[in-house]
């Protein structure tokens, strides 16, 4: 029992310590130009963030028999829990980490709401989405210009047979508001 209490106390103190760090922005809002919409990224710990994007996003059509060749723009909500693995090394090399400029791994999930559409002669209705893992880079500059790109694989579900397909997200835009946290010195 004492070991369990000690383990619970140590893990609680570890997670409380992880909430305060020196690398990630506390929060930032971005306007996206490539996939028109807004993005919000908030710090969860020293090197991790929660990124939420609401946009009109380019995506493959998973209801197609050849989804990799059939793209369209759909309203979407994308959520990622990003872990930036190289912020410390970038800072040591005197590279900017402003705006969470770094490389990351992230579980990623998206929900698309395209409405009714005709795909290969049949009516497809309802939302679809994916859950998967991506690797990406994000760079932000003092002017506010920011871009990120990530790629990986995800399991797509919806009004069609579920399948694993590639996932690629591209965000090009501007940081319109940020709360800095000892970064970009």
Automatic annotation (TrEMBL):
Range of residues in the leader sequence: 1-18
The protein, known as: DUF3575 domain-containing protein
Superkingdom: Bacteria
Highest classification ranks of the organism: Bacteria, Pseudomonadati, Bacteroidota, Flavobacteriia, Flavobacteriales
Protein keywords: Signal
């Amino acid at each position: 029992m004492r070991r369990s209490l000690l383990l619970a106390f140590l893990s609680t103190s570890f997670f409380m310590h992880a909430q305060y760090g020196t690398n990630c922005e506390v929060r930032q809002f971005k306007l996206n130009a490539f996939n028109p919409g807004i993005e919000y990224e908030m710090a969860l710990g020293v090197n991790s963030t929660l990124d939420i994007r609401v946009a009109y996003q380019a995506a493959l059509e998973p209801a197609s028999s050849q989804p990799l060749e059939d793209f369209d723009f759909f309203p979407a909500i994308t959520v990622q829990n990003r872990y930036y693995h190289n912020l410390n090394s970038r800072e040591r090399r005197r590279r900017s980490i402003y705006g969470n400029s770094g490389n990351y791994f992230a579980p990623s999930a998206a929900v698309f709401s395209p409405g009714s559409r005709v795909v290969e002669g049949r009516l497809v209705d309802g939302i679809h989405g994916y859950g998967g893992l991506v690797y990406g880079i994000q760079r932000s500059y003092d002017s506010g210009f920011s871009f990120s790109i990530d790629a990986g694989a995800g399991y797509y579900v919806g009004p069609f047979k579920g399948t694993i397909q590639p996932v690629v997200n591209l965000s090009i835009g501007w940081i319109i508001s940020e709360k800095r946290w000892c970064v970009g010195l």
